[in-house]
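Researcher: Next entry in the queue.
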Amino acid sequence: MLALLVARYAKDAARTYLRTTVVLTALSLAGPLAAADTATSTKVVLVVAHLLAAAIVIPPVARRLAHR
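Model: Structure for this entry, 68 residues:
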């Protein structure tokens, strides 16, 4: 959904998408890191899962937007 909006309204869609998703990924790490009464190992796994998902999804979408 975000990629569609960025592709439609942004001048440099790939750059805008990349910047937005990096910021959103960083914000998504706040949840696991701020979770009270949660084991450190669980926090680490959640952070790694968020970063892995971002690393898999963001680059191909950004490349596709760059070729529009």
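Model: Residues 2-66 form one domain.
Researcher: Noted, moving on.
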